[in-house]
TrEMBL record:
Species whose genome carries this gene: Sediminicurvatus halobius
Domain of life: Bacteria
Entry annotated with the keyword S-adenosyl-L-methionine: yes
Cited function: Catalyzes the breakage of the C-P bond in alpha-D-ribose 1-methylphosphonate 5-phosphate (PRPn) forming alpha-D-ribose.
InterPro entries, alphabetized: PhnJ (IPR010306)
Catalytic activity of the protein: alpha-D-ribose 1-methylphosphonate 5-phosphate + AH2 + S-adenosyl-L-methionine = alpha-D-ribose 1,2-cyclic phosphate 5-phosphate + methane + 5'-deoxyadenosine + L-methionine + A + H(+)
Protein's name according to its UniProt entry: Alpha-D-ribose 1-methylphosphonate 5-phosphate C-P lyase
Sequence similarity: Belongs to the PhnJ family.
Source organism phylogeny: Bacteria, Pseudomonadati, Pseudomonadota, Gammaproteobacteria, Chromatiales
GO biological process, one term: organic phosphonate catabolic process
Keyword tags: 4Fe-4S, Iron, Iron-sulfur, Lyase, Metal-binding, S-adenosyl-L-methionine
EC number: 4.7.1.1
One example GO MF annotation: alpha-D-ribose 1-methylphosphonate 5-phosphate C-P-lyase activity
Length: 286
């Protein structure tokens, strides 16, 4: 049932569909952070499992690419393993769990801790691409707000969190300004990962299958989280390092290890954690 067996077209989608997705992606790269509509196709998995990201990956992947798929930073979840096997069978491409070996990384909810390079493309699975959805339910009105760069309502939302809680409580999907023009949803990545978006050397592509939208952040583009002069943007921190590898600079997951409620804090990025435990040299984020 692999592409080599003739069971599927290369990377599952037909060539006309892939050209259509690539045209939308080119528009998205030309206008960083701007949502571009595309004709999302039915995929052999339900919405919510990354149909948008899969279509974007299928449109840009080549026979010489090496694919890595992560879900919440892990390579071994059902979502990550299923998508990795999907492309291995339908495209016959090489797959890997190492960040530095991959030319395309499809991700759900995390950016790898290992610094990305200009030779890599990061594809995000996005459930809700519209950052203004929390303040304006009308799609027509959000289009108008983007056209006029009318983002005051989003700042009011953050201000209300500060007024009620003393701090911004938005822990994930934290809104960012791209290239000083478009407000963008960075997908449900934790706030911890927002600084990695800024001037990243990798091409970043975002696909929302259910909402039929793609958008992009080209390499070395300014991506700045919304904040205030007296309440600057901050990221999460932990009082303890990873209990498996000792990393104090990575995003940690809280894991319940037994019925007594014992907690373990470990790196969300399983590749990063495994390489540290193996004693491999650490790469530094530029």
């Amino acid at each position: 049932m692999s592409a080599a067996d003739g069971g599927y077209n290369f990377a599952y989608l037909d060539e006309q569909t892939k050209r259509m997705v690539r045209r939308a992606l080119l528009k998205a790269v030309a206008v960083p952070g701007c949502q571009i509509p595309f004709a999302s196709r039915e995929m052999p998995l339900p919405y919510g499992w990354g149909t948008g990201g899969i279509q974007v990956t299928a449109a840009v992947i080549g026979r010489e690419d090496c694919l890595k798929v992560i879900d919440q930073g892990a390579d071994d979840t059902t979502n990550a393993v299923s998508i990795r096997r999907f492309f291995a069978r339908t495209a016959g491409v090489a797959t890997t769990e190492r960040t530095d070996e991959a030319s395309i990384i499809q991700t759900r909810h995390r950016i790898p801790e290992t610094p990305l390079t200009a030779a890599q493309t990061l594809v995000y699975q996005v459930p809700i691409p519209e950052p203004l959805r929390r303040v304006e339910p009308s799609e027509r009105e959000t289009r108008r707000m983007h056209a006029l760069a009318d983002y005051g309502a989003m700042r009011v939302l953050l201000y209300e969190q500060i007024a009620r809680r003393g701090r911004v409580t938005q822990s994930y999907n934290y809104p960012v300004m791209v290239n000083g023009r478009h407000l963008m949803s960075p997908s449900p990545i934790p706030r911890f990962d927002n600084p990695k978006l800024h001037r990243s050397p990798a091409l970043q592509l975002f696909g929302a299958g259910r909402e039929r939208r793609v958008y992009a952040v080209p390499p070395y583009t300014d991506v700045v989280p919304l904040d205030f002069e007296d309440y600057p943007f901050t990221v999460e921190s932990w009082e303890r390092p990873c209990e498996l590898c000792g990393a104090a600079d990575s995003y940690l997951d809280e894991i319940v290890t037994d019925d007594a409620g014992t907690r373990l804090f470990a790196c969300s990025d399983t590749d990063y954690c495994a390489r540290r435990r193996a004693g491999e040299p650490r790469e530094v984020q530029a």
